[in-house]
Predict the 3D structure of the following.
Amino acid sequence: MSLRLGIHDLSLATTSFVVQLDDLAAYAGVDPDKYRLGLGQEQMSVPGADEDIVTMAARAAAPILERHGVDGIRTLYVATESGVDQSKSAAVFVHSLLGLPSSCRAVELKQACYSGTAALQAALGQIARSPEDRVLVISADIARYALDSAAEVTQGAAAVAMLVSADPALVELESATGIYTAEVDDFWRPNDSSTALVDGKLSVDAYIDAYLGAWDDYRAHGGVPIEQIDRFCHHQPFTRMAAKAQRALAEHVGAEIDEARHLGSTRYNRRIGNSYTASLYAGLASLLDGDDDLTGARIGLYSYGSGSIGEFLAGRVVPGYRDHGRAAATLAALDTRTTLSIEQYRALHAGAAIGSVQDVTIAPVSSGPFHFTGVTGRARHYRR
Ligand code: HMG
């Protein structure tokens, strides 16, 4: 019998602060429907001064370790494009905050919003070789663009932790996968910039080109036809992007467009904003936490990272998956964020790039259990 491999548990965390996009629209003199309907966004998560991808990643993973312990976890991957150091991986900081054993390796992966999927694939390969191992995969990002740019409204932040194992309790991943890699300057962040640069229209086209290319490769490698996929879940830089992608795929394969097949995956993302590597898996959390009983359903997952890589894969929802839901915890995390005024948000944004040259102590301001405490001797420090 072949091994069943996939996602055994999944947990989402975001920041302690939020901007209401109606407030941003009023400030920018834009019709709020452009954000609500045109982009499909209502809010965006914003980190406090003591929050970053390390604190979010640890916050996402802590409930998984409380439920399952650390036995057998021999690898931690942190996928991010918001790295906190050019050399030391964010995963080593997270490893320490979570109290993982020294026998667990800790590595960071990068390829824009895509690397969480690369980490997931690496984890599946490792477990296929050593089925008793479990791998902790955490995707964590802060989407930050320049103030007053067209992309500003598509910022956000979140982390999703997944425990990947044999005999998974949530989603069993199928082996067929489709990949599309093409070099394109649609979005990037130079080493000396704390905000991303983007060609918005080109990025939308590149996302769709990679979707169709990955789909064709998926079909060529044994993937099922579109009718056999019950729900779709996409990387969501803004949730209307998922609708654009589905329309393009339906036209590409000559199928009917069925909005109901992807809408369930947009619920959390509308309130978080773009969370880069975490966005696709926040969409999966939305879908699994929704009202529909998805037992046995096949979910198609589209991962996109600018620059660019697209990958399409699919998995089956495992019977009993609802016993492991985290909807109440996720909704509480979203509902208890503190709303920032636009002035507070702009001040926080402007002060985000603290650098490492000056020693600095950061007071705890966020509600989570993990805090960035500052920089001494050019090194970052954290505390639980
Ligand atoms: P924009 O130029 O401000 O917006 O930029 P627009 O004028 O294109 O309007 C957006 C939509 O709102 C349009 O709908 C308008 O019609 C509609 P569409 O034609 O697209 O269907 N609209 C309205 N609807 C209702 N009522 C109104 C109204 N007004 C207008 N009153 C853009 C939008 C997304 C380009 C910008 O925000 C941006 O550059 N964002 C960042 C880039 C991005 O998110 N790209 C997505 C694909 S690339 C990707 O996903 C990778 C990424 O996550 C990074 C990574 O991989 O690491 C970004």
User: Anything to note?
Assistant: The chain has one domain: 5-383. The pocket of 3-hydroxy-3-methylglutaryl-coenzyme A is lined by residues 31, 33-34, 37-39, 81, 112-113, 150-151, 153-154, 187, 198, 200, 203-204, 207, 235, 237-238, 241, 274, 276, 304-306 (CB under 6 Å). DSSP finds twelve helices and 17 strands in the chain. The mean pLDDT is 96.
